[in-house]
Amino acid sequence: MLRISNLSVNYDHIVALEDVSFFVEKGSIVSIIGSNGAGKSTLINTISGVVRRKSGEILLDGRPLPAAAHKVVREGVVQVPEGRHVFPNLTVAENLVMGGARRSAKDAARKIPEMYQLFPILGERKKQMAGTLSGGEQQMLAIARGLMAEPEILLLDEPSLGLAPIIVNQVFKIIRRINDSGITVLLVEQNASKAMAISDYTYVLENGKVVREGASRELRNDPQIQSAYLGETKEDVCR
Length: 239
Fold this sequence. Notes:
By secondary structure, the chain is α/β, with parallel strands linked by helices.
C-alpha cells in the first residue's frame, strides 16, 4: 500500500535519513522504533509532506505521493503529530470540525458522533476548550481529529509521549480498535514494547538508517532488541 524507497533527508549538511526503504501493507499496523534522534519523526514528517526529501520515492498504491501536505491528506494519508497540537482556544467539537475541513460541513457533522462513540470522554467534554483537557484527553482529541479526515493510512507520531501508564494502555487499545475498523496504521513510537505488542511488522531506525526489520513478534524475542529497546536481557526474559 505505502512503499518508501531509498528515502534520504538532509537538514542543511546534517543527514537525517539515509537510503531508507520500507513497506506498509494494507490493513496492517507497522511500527518504527528507535532511540531519540534516530530520525523517526523526520521520516513521518517527510511522508506527510511537512519535510522535503533530498531523494527517494514515496508511493501509495503504486502512485507517487504528492510532496505538499494538504495534497497528502487528500490522498488519504493523515498524520497525528507528536505533541498533539490541538487548537487550545477551540472547543473539542470545534477541533473535530477542523479535522473534517476537507469534507462538506454536512458530512463532517455526521462523522462527529462516531468520534464520541470511540472516545466517550470527548463527548462529555465537547463544549470544553481543548487547551484545558488533560494530556491523555488531548491525545485522544488529536487522534479523533485525524480520523475526521477519513484516512486510509493513519500516521501516529509518538502517541504515548508524556502520558501516564494507564492512559498509554488506553491509547494503544484505541489504536488497535482503529486498525480493526480497517484503517492501516504507521506507528512511530519510542515505547518499543507497546508498539511491537500491537503491530504486525517492525522496522528499527538508527542514525537515520533501517538497521533491522521483521515480524514484531519475532523481534520482541530477539535478545539484542530486548537489550537495546525493551530494557530487557536474555536473563531477564528467562526469569
